Write a sequence for this structure.
């Protein structure tokens, strides 16, 4: 029998992820422009871009196959599934939470990334293939960090349920301040900075020397590009919300239908703090060479692995 309250909570969390994820990208871009003394786009620019692209025709390369066409929809569906199984708005389980755990969530993120790489290779474009190769090489440490952090966090509470981890940290401030948790938070923050494309790299954008994630969507246009971008916005929101609710700021979330509505402004406030932190990091660090990203991610992986060792030693 369907619980109406639980169904409403699940729907609210899903709609927040789908509808508000472009907003946080717009706020971040606007704030970064202000810091750089530029006028910058509106905070609603991502919505304008999605609306414009959804109204355009998708042009498919002559050499592209079915994987190229259906990959954006598959990745978008995966992010929709993640949106209703992990604590990105509510601190209690919702429908489909039992589908995956921490490790399963990390594998779903990896699956979506793998599908995007397959689509880039299937496009037949050399630049897209170059970007896919770089994403694959960087993913050795990025995916390893994500899975290692999730696995090590499970040792804190003896479970790999992210909701239990959130409740445990709220009830036990000592665990939040423990050295192992600090290492995990720093490692996940470094990973989020990379996954959201905020590592300051020279020649960023669509230039050949800076093509990483942008290269995966290089051949997309129209509706397919809109779905691809929307999925990227959702991925950034999902990872950022896990960082906030499980690692950085686990407090403040309420339960129930009214609690879910109250959690929306709470999450906006949390995201504003995270955006300010990210803009400071992005605008104050000197740009690094592209090949230095491997060093950056290896440090994040080392911290996550050290976190795992500390948990084993302490317990």
């Amino acid at each position: 029998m369907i619980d109406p309250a639980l169904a409403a909570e699940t729907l609210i969390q899903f709609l927040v992820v789908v509808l508000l994820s472009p907003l946080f990208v717009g706020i971040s871009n606007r704030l970064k422009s202000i810091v750089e003394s530029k006028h910058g786009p509106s905070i609603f620019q991502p919505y304008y871009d999605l609306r414009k692209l959804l109204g355009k025709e998708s042009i498919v390369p002559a050499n592209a196959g079915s994987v190229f066409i259906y990959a954006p929809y598959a990745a978008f569906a995966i992010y929709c599934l993640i949106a209703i199984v992990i604590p990105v708005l509510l601190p209690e389980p919702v429908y489909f939470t039992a589908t995956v755990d921490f490790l399963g969530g990390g594998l779903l993120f990896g699956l979506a990334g793998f599908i995007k790489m397959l689509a880039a290779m299937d496009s037949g474009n050399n630049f897209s293939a170059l970007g896919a190769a770089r994403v694959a090489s960087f993913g050795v440490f990025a995916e390893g960090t994500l899975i290692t952090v999730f696995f090590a966090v499970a040792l804190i509470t003896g479970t790999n349920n992210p909701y239990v981890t959130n409740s445990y940290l709220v009830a036990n401030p000592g665990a939040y301040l423990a050295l192992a948790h600090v290492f995990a938070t720093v490692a996940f923050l470094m990973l989020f900075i990379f996954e959201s494309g905020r590592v300051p790299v020279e020649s960023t954008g669509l230039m050949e020397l800076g093509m990483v994630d942008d290269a995966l969507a290089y051949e997309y246009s129209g509706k397919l590009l809109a779905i691809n971008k929307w999925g990227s916005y959702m991925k950034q929101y999902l990872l950022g919300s896990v960082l906030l609710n499980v690692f950085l700021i686990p407090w403040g979330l309420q339960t129930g239908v009214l609690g879910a509505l109250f959690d929306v402004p709470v999450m906006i406030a949390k995201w504003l703090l995270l955006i300010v932190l990210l803009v400071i990091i992005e605008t104050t660090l000197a740009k690094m060479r592209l090949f230095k990203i491997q060093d950056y991610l290896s440090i994040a992986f080392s911290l996550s692995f050290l976190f795992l060792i500390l948990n084993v030693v302490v317990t």
